[in-house]
Amino acid sequence: MKRWLRIALTLVFTGLAVGYLVWKIDLHTTIDILVDADPWWFALAVSIMIGTALPMALRWQWLMRAQSMDDNFPWLTRAYFVAYTAGQVLPTSIGGDAMRVYETARRHPGRTGDITAIILLERGLGGAGTVLLGAIGFVLALGTYDVGAYLWLEGLFVLGTLVLLFLFFARAARPLLARTQPLLRRIRVDRPMRAFYDGVHHFRGHVRLLVGVFVFTTLIQAVRVLSIWAAGKAVGIELGPRIYYVMGPLFFLVLLVPFTLNGFAVREAFFVSFLGSVGIPSDQAFAAGFLFFLVTTTLALPGAVILLWEGIRGGSRPRLEHG
Fold first, then answer.
1. 9 in a domain, yes or no?
2. In which band, very low, low, confident or very high, does the pLDDT at 170 lie, cut at 50, 70 and 90?
3. Secondary structure string (H, E, C) spanning the chain
4. Which of 36, 44, 61, 127 has the lowest tally of Cβ within 10 angstroms?
């Protein structure tokens, strides 16, 4: 995508979100709510987010081993935290993924295509696990919560995920994908897309691994949803975890949208809109969204400390593969 178009879309998304928030909230009331926030609930939200980075690094290690790239768990954990830090200044989580590709490719020269495929597959499995939680949330919400269009949006994500799984893993999809090759060649992305497809398609021979990683990822995402609940509790929102399993999956998918300034305003607008649909005042909902922003910012601190320490020591050296 051309840079000017991405910038324009980012400004449009952010501008609309800011306008919505200005319309919905009272700044003084929101500040009062944030000042009175419970630090222990906030600490719980931070602990959940930081703690779940460890099993995510383990998941990444399993997928790399399936492509004959063995790397140690401490370094992969370090790379995850550094990616979170990069995601604070680069476009959403996609910027963090790009950082992981760059650093891992230095350690495994000549495997950039495979590494990119693994990281995007990992992201895709995370999205699929999130969508599964969304489907569960859909069932939980029926007849209980009046969140209208959000339920059908989750239904569309479920359908879209099934279509993507078919395209990437079903042999019958190959003739359909072949028809897109002239277009991809015209816009000069046919080679990287082919390398990505081959890298992902390689995992057709690892069905047990994919199923295991998918279940593992879904459990991780289920725990991470509780960090949103804890952020809400910190500002006095007395809702049980159940509603957050309707909200959380959609929210995690919103964070993947690349046309935001690290989710600025879009994240808070989502909180105000969704929680408002279940009767939470806009100021309180905005406070929860802003507090969750602080949670994700705190998540970037370990990576910042790692980069500072490596800078003092002269940087980390890539490990070259042998054999």
1. no
2. low
3. CCHHHHHHHHHHHHHHHHHHHHHHCCHHHHHHHHHCCCHHHHHHHHHHHHHCHHHHHHHHHHHHHHCCCCCCHHHHHHHHHHHHHHCCCCCHHHHHHHHHHHHHHHHCCCCHHHHHHHHHHHHHHHHHHHHHHHHHHHHHHCCCCCCCHHHHHHHHHHHHHHHHHHHHHCHHHHHHHHCCHHHHHHCCCHHHHHHHHHHHHHHHHCHHHHHHHHHHHHHHHHHHHHHHHHHHHHCCCCCCHHHHHHHHHHHHHHCCCCCCCCCCCHHHHHHHHHHHCCCCCHHHHHHHHHHHHHHHHHHCHHHHHHHHHHHHHCCCCCCCCCC
4. 36
Instruction: Provide mean pLDDT across the span 3-14.
Output: 68
> What letter represents residue 277's amino acid?
S
Structural domain boundaries enclosing 304: 26-313
Supply the pLDDT for residue 119: 86
Mean pLDDT, the chain, integer: 78
**Pair 278, 239: CB distance under 8 Å:** yes
The residue type of 164 is: L
Residue of higher predicted confidence among 172 and 148: 172
CA 117 and chain centroid, separation: 16
Residue 18 lies in a domain: no
**Dist. CA 180–CA 268, nearest whole Å:** 38
Instruction: Please give the Cα distance from 62 to 57 (Å, whole number).
Output: 9
Structure tokens at 123: 């992201």
What predicted TM-score, i.e. pTM, was given to this entire model? 0.78
Total domains present in the chain: 1
Give the pLDDT of residue 166: 64
Q: What digits encode the pLDDT tens for the residues 88-126?
A: 766 555 667 888 988 898 888 888 878 888 887 887 777
**Domain for residue 215, yes or no?**
yes
List the Cα angle 15/17/21 in 5-degree steps: 115
Distance CA 272, CA 101 (A): 35
Judge whether 65 lies within some domain: yes
More confident residue, 55 or 138: 55
